Amino acid sequence: LFHGDEAAIAPRSSDQAFDVVLNKTGRTIHIPADKKILDVLKAEGFKIKVLCTEGVCGTCKVKLVSGIADHRDECLTD
Predict the structure, then answer these.
(1) Which end of the chain has fewer CB atoms < 10 Å from its terminal CB, N or C?
(2) In this structure, what are the phi and psi dihedrals at residue 22, rounded to the nearest 5 degrees?
(3) What confidence tens digit (pLDDT) does each residue in 56-65 have?
């Protein structure tokens, strides 16, 4: 397992890269298979309020407009 900004859960061999479209700006951000959305957005310069970075506290929770989330965390459930 990884901790902190690396990842709360180890990547899976079946993971695939994907794109996230930011609703307010329409900007598309590519997320590599081995990265978390949070880490990529922070690297792109977005200021995101976070506390735990492991999906436990829910501070960084955002609204999903479309698509299916694979949120490997302790905060959100099916």
Answers:
(1) C
(2) -80, 120
(3) 788 888 888 9
Quote the radius of gyration of the chain (alpha carbons, Å).
12
Per DSSP, 18 falls in state: E
Nearest alpha-carbon partner for 35 in 56, 57, 7, 63: 7
| Gap between the Cα atoms of 72 and 10, Å rounded | 10
Q: Report d(CA 27, CA 68) in Å as an integer.
A: 19
Q: Phi then psi for 18, rounded to 5 degrees?
A: -155, 170
Q: Is the pTM of this model over 0.85?
A: no
| DSSP code string of 38-58 | HHHHHHTT-----SSSSSSS-
